[in-house]
Amino acid sequence: MLVLLHEGCPVPVAVHPRDRLLARLRASRLDTALAAGASPDATVGLALRAQTLIRVRVRRSLAQAAERVLAAAVQPRASRPAIPVCRERVQDCSQELEDLIRRLLAPGPVSAQGIAQACALLTDARSPIFYRPSHDDLRARILTAAHSLDPA
Prior knowledge:
It is a single chain. This protein folds into two domains: 2-53, no CATH class; 56-148, no CATH class. 58% of the residues lie in helices and 7% in strands. The chain contains eight helices and two strands. A hairpin with a 2-residue loop joins strand 1 and strand 2. Helix 2 (27-35) packs across helix 3. The longest helix has 19 residues, at 56-74. The protein is elongated, with a radius of gyration of 17 Å. The model has no long low-confidence stretch (mean pLDDT 92).
């Protein structure tokens, strides 16, 4: 059972196995909506995906991904792992990325929006971390994700 908001009023909604399956299948689309600011209380799919994203295990996994990105950016070319990062961009934003990692690992609640933004930044091949032709400002994206982690 979930409680969603409909026109500002809480409405109990039963969750079926089909709903859980659809939330998994539509994870990418739901993440995009959450990252853009969609309310996790708007639909069953968004609520289920938000519950998944804010889990400690997911937060740790994203922090580890960010640590791997940082390591790939600072290691000498000969010993670098196969993660193709835009080294200069990541190095320029290393402090912001370290702050994002700290916030991901910090105890307490986080917002699904911030987790979805961090996930897109760290897993999307077209993110400015990985995609050199990207015109997105990496520092701004990291700061936005870190700031959006605050549940307030």
